[in-house]
């Protein structure tokens, strides 16, 4: 049994430390911030060597990096989202896009009632297309909301971290996700990623057929190229890219 109380087995800890914010209400009051950061992940297969919670762990790692650099109100993650393309694998759990839309919208409304008037959604799962609609609709109503990171933020991070795999090829459980977990939660990366590379760049029927039509292992990418150093540099770059988002929301206030 570990000192943190988390159960451990041959593969390491059963629960990730540091995922939930430890603020008290007085901490939030003293900080006085009016911008909240909400990590949104998923609970879906990530091959045989990364945990089902990978996207949530990635979103939380990005959000923690942001909270360490800027005066924001860090929220606990949304851990189940739209993972329907991974339904063929055991362990994957999904909710509908309508439900995810409602959850994020309700969180934003609740924050607004308590005086936090801007929300940044940190998305860790590419299949959460509906989050773009949530932000668009909120912005059209005059509310302050943003979706982070954008594709351009990831591209800058890839270049600064020395990520070799292209965004098209690095689709799932590949170089980027493996790198971030090797840095933020190395105990969660099980043996096997070093030889799990698999590419499938032509995925034009993904929404119709799901991931199982393109990969048997659940991996699409080159996890063998992942490293903790790349993960550290990816997070550092994303934190730097967040600055203009905060300035934009602050200016709107």
TrEMBL record:
Biased-composition ranges, Basic and acidic residues, are 1-10
**Pfam families the record matches:** Creatininase
Q: Which UniProt keywords apply?
A: Hydrolase, Metal-binding, Zinc
Residues covered by region (Disordered): 1-25
The protein's required cofactor(s) are namely:
Zn(2+)
Q: Which InterPro entries match?
A: Creatininase-like_sf (IPR024087), Creatininase/forma_Hydrolase (IPR003785)
This protein's source sits in the domain of life called: Bacteria
User: Mind telling me which Gene3D superfamilies this protein's record contains?
Assistant: Creatininase
> What does the sequence similarity comment in the record state about its family?
Belongs to the creatininase superfamily.
Q: What is this protein called?
A: Creatininase family protein
């Amino acid at each position: 049994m570990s000192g943190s109380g988390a159960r451990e087995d041959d593969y390491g800890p059963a629960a990730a430390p540091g995922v939930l914010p430890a603020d008290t209400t007085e901490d939030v009051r003293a900080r006085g911030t009016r911008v909240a950061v909400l990590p949104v992940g998923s609970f879906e297969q990530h091959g045989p060597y990364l945990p089902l919670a990978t996207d949530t762990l990635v979103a939380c790692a990005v959000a923690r990096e942001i909270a360490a650099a800027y005066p924001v109100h860090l929220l606990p993650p949304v851990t189940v989202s739209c993972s329907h393309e991974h339904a063929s694998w055991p362990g994957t759990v999904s909710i509908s896009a309508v439900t995810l839309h409602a959850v994020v919208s309700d969180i934003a409304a609740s924050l607004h009632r308590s005086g936090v008037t801007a929300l940044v959604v940190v998305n860790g799962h590419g299949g959460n297309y509906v989050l773009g609609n949530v932000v668009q609709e909120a912005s059209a109503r005059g509310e302050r909301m943003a979706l982070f990171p954008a594709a351009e933020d990831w591209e800058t991070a890839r270049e600064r971290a020395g990520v070799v795999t292209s965004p098209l090829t690095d689709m799932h459980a590949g170089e980027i996700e493996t790198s971030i977990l090797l840095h933020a939660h190395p105990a969660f990366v099980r043996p096997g990623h070093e030889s799990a590379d698999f590419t499938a760049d032509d995925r034009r029927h993904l929404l119709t057929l799901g991931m199982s039509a393109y990969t048997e292992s659940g991996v699409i990418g080159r996890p063998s190229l992942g490293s903790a150093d790349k993960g550290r540099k990816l997070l550092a770059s994303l934190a730097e890219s967040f600055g203009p988002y905060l300035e934009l929301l602050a200016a709107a206030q």
